[in-house]
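QUALITY CONTROL LOG
STEP: pairwise intake check
CHECKER ROLE: data steward
CRITERIA: each record must contain a sequence immediately followed by its structure tokens, with no blank fields

ENTRY 1 OF 2
RESULT FIELD BELOW
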Amino acid sequence: MLPLQPGLAPAPAVLIDERTRPDFRAIFGTLAGGSTEIATAVTRVRISTLDLDAGEVERVEHFRVLIAELNALTLDSEARLIQADPRRSPRVPLLRKLLESERLEVRSAPLGGWSPDFTVFSDETGPRAVVAGFHWFERPYPHRGPALTALHFEDAARLAAERHAELWQRAHDVGPALWSILSKAERAGRLMRGAAG
């Protein structure tokens, strides 16, 4: 479990907004770092705002991402733009390597329908936490709030894990397409850096 303050047990649920400290990004990273499995269901994914580092997913054996909306052209454009930013460029090879190792799986469920977005964090004992609500990684939060997300623990996490598993079974694999997009962006980034150097 994640104590939000040292020495305190987590509350049955915690509401997070864009002003909360630690912020959504820090809470997500801490939960990911203690997990062996992560199951996410998000309406759409933006690579440019996804900010996880290798250390935070080091223990993760299975990272299942379910997406309702997947636009290959948008993802390709974002991946290429990230390659031009030295601070953000490591995100693309990290995601590609996770896909290659099959630790990251991505499926699309355009007819799945869920609300709100949610992520379940599990360890060796099973589901231990779920964040349900708006998922954002950008710092500072780029819009006028509120951006609300609730953090729940074991019972809610077990329910969310069951629902994610149901959605996952009906979705189709888009991992190879995403891998191709990331690989092309990486090659373009290397060529761009080589031409500049």
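ENTRY 2 OF 2
RESULT FIELD BELOW
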Amino acid sequence: MARFPMTKKITKLLFLCLALHSTPAHALIGDVDKSFGLDGNVKAFTFTSKNHEHPIFNADNAYDAQGLLHLRLIAAGKPITYLSYEIHGLTHMAVIDDTDLSTIFATNTPTQHYLFFQNSWDLVAEDKISATQSLERANIKLRLEAADIIIGKQAITFGKTYFWNPLDVFSPFGAIQFDRDYKAAIDGLRIDIPLGNFSGLNIVTTTDEFDEAYGLLRYFGNMADWDLALQTGLIHNGAHLGAGASGEIGSVGLRLEGAYLWPDKSSVLSEHLSAVLGLGYVINEKTQVQFEQLYNGGATNNLLTNMALFSSGGLLQASKHVSGLSMSHQPSALIQSSFTLIWSWKEFSALVYPSIVISLSDEIDLLTGAMVSVGQKAGKGGLSDLGSEFGNYPHSIYMELKAYF
């Protein structure tokens, strides 16, 4: 039975909450560029999906609906010239019909690894309603003459590609994640050592609740107008060695990233290479197109195994050869539209998702879009007969409203 009336109630409730925050953007208290400041944002999401005849990922219901509300408070400041800090508290509220659709769109992706301690606490945990409070970031940064040192819960991003990032080993964004304002953080120590105007070293150390120790050493530089990177270290699942380059050949932007993993004894992964080739072209000042090709060497011939590894973060995707194409167009200063297509070559399947972002004011943005899955669906055998990687995703529409204060 369809549940769209529930979706309308969710939408009205969440958008009313956002309307209460549509005041001009400024710090609530103080100034984040001085010793103390407090500001934040609130986001409301609604999702509705139409599931397939054999919805193995969505229970036995024809439709799903969900509403989410994220309230983020940010305390930050610079008490002295060489010291700064930031603390993010996130309240996450959800009204779920049957299936948590946010896991499909990866609207909130806390890492499963690289955490010293539990950073999330349940406030409400009922059948269809939940609320959690989490400490999203909490770190101190020291700016010294020889290096910048950051210790605590922080977001760490490496890599230049968009859909898939073999070099971004710490809580990377998913290929279809549409909200990339805040990346999930890890607990650790980061040291950035400059070697020149465009070169330096990054050192990262972290653990899994002190059970395992991890470390990464990264060099970055520039040669002949090309940005280069080389990194190695011990990460979750094994030993890692990767390299990347980005630059331009004529009017075409080129991105290359690759990483090789030697898995540890406890990992179910095999020794493999992951590599991405990315191309970008600016058609005009309002329109650009991006393309990426992924070689996912860790994928096996068993789709079910690959899906499990992908869900746990062990693989960048479940298929071995996957492509992504995105075209964005800005018809006006207040509107940004895009059309994205991701497809798997073996047993062809694809996700198609158009979206549009409208700036309602300096402090409020509205994003809406859809996702359509193409490809063979799961057969009557269920998990033993998945059909294709993307064919089992539900057809979905979504909306997000952001307000900053």
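INTAKE CHECK: passed for both entries
DESCRIPTIVE NOTE, ENTRY 2: Confidence is low (pLDDT under 50) at residues 1-25.
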